[in-house]
Amino acid sequence: MAAFRTACLWVTLALITGCGVSATPAQSGLPVTNACFMTDSGSVPVVLEVASTPEQRQVGLMGRTELPPDHGMLFQYEEEREPRNGFWMYRTLIPLDIAFLDQKGTIGNIRAMVPCSASQGRNCPIYPAGVHYWSAVEMNAGFYLANGIEAGDRLIFNGEKCPTED
């Protein structure tokens, strides 16, 4: 089954990238959720667009020229993803960092990703997760470091209120 999924992924990539570069409009109208990252020193509120369908995840943040400082995109999956699975930056114009989360929202790994200016997606690197994951959160490059967010910290989502410091 895994071999079949891998083959399907490569066929899909070939179909997508075989036509060269064309403009990819930024997707809009995605559901938005307020969430926060919980660290040892407190909470960091964020606003996340939610990409939960294959089509939404495929486009992701392609075509965006900017992202507000505390905004990002949450990629949700119906089943656990393998450590070799990951993300790429084809047609993505802004540098991003990505956190890979387990089913409980705990960060397993954070990776830095740079835009790929190649005319075809097959020439862009893939950034594998390195851990099993159920979701991933892309934020502006440097966001996690600047906010002291690291592996082991947790994302609280689905409308839960972020704790405040008293």
Question: Would you give an account of this structure?
Answer:
It is built from 3 helices and 9 strands. It has helices spanning 2-17, 54-59, 143-146; strands at 32-39, 42-51, 71-81, 86-88, 96-101, 107-113, 126-128, 133-140, 154-156. With 166 residues, it is of the alpha+beta class. The chain has a 7-stranded mixed beta sheet with strand order 6-5-8-3-2-1-9. A two-stranded antiparallel ribbon has the order 4-7. The protein has one domain: Jelly Rolls (Sandwich), CATH 2.60.120. Helix 2 links the parallel strand 2 (42-51) and strand 3. The radius of gyration is 16 Å and the shape is globular.
How would the blueprint of this fold be written?
Layout: H1 2-17, E1 32-39, E2 42-51, H2 54-59, E3 71-81, E4 86-88, E5 96-101, E6 107-113, E7 126-128, E8 133-140, H3 143-146, E9 154-156
Parallel strand pairs: 2-3
Antiparallel strand pairs: 1-2, 1-9, 3-8, 4-7, 5-6, 5-8
Q: What's the CATH topology name?
A: Jelly Rolls
Categorize the overall geometry: globular
Task: Please tell me the overall pLDDT.
Answer: 85
Query: What Rg do the Cα atoms give?
Result: 16 Å
Strand order of the largest sheet: 6-5-8-3-2-1-9
